[in-house]
Amino acid sequence: MSSLVSLENVSKVYQLGEHAFSALKNIYFELERGEMTAIVGASGSGKSTLMNIIGFLDRCTTGRYLFAGADVSDLAEQDLAGIRNTKIGFVFQSFFLLPRSNALQNVMLPLFYRGTPRQEAKENAMHLLDKVGVGHLAYHKPNQLSGGQQQRVAIARALVTNPEIILADEPTGALDSQTGEEVMQLFVDLNRNEGRTIVIITHDNEVSRRCQRVVTIKDGRIAC
């Protein structure tokens, strides 16, 4: 069986005026279905660029990206957006919940983009809010929720399309240590109990220890 994600000799170069900056250099990376992997590195090491390429938020400059065995390196933007919106679930440090929408509406939003009927979207969103432990807060707006509760809503939103991968960028970075541990336990449970494929971008050793595999990136290269 082919890997879910396979990066072959991938580099990413940003042109900054007359200067070129190599954010990633000759990356080889494989991710199997059901893995929970941490990508760790210092600020500026290239770990977020790597996440953006895996999640179809950016393109590699050179190299090949195979997703579920298919070469997606040269797909049109519209096709990449389709994969991103159906196959990838994102969780970010800053939550990115819509402030004027309640928790239920925030989780329903990705389903609206897919044309899911409203009642079905509502039922699916409520099920996931219950699963992550905040169903009783479904009609609260983000400013009425704690940081940990907002992150749980964000995780429910990432799960609602039943994605192939969850990409979490510093998901505990804005949380206190106890709340961060609770959020990490939620990721662990999703991986162990449901077989979810999860990639966590972090600089926190406590977070990376909870993952099955740790990939270290330094100066745009995978160190180990």
Automatic annotation (TrEMBL):
One of its GO terms (cellular component) is plasma membrane. Gene3D superfamilies: P-loop containing nucleotide triphosphate hydrolases. The keyword Ligase does not apply. It comes from the Bacteria. Residues 5-223 form the ABC transporter domain. Keywords: ATP-binding, Nucleotide-binding, Transport. InterPro entries: AAA+_ATPase, ABC_transporter-like_ATP-bd, ABC_transporter-like_CS, ABC_transpr_LolD-like, MacB-like_ATP-bd, P-loop_NTPase. GO terms for molecular function: ATP binding; ATP hydrolysis activity; transmembrane transporter activity. The keyword Metal-binding does not apply. SMART domains: AAA. Belongs to the ABC transporter superfamily. Macrolide exporter (TC 3.A.1.122) family. This is Putative ABC transport system ATP-binding protein.
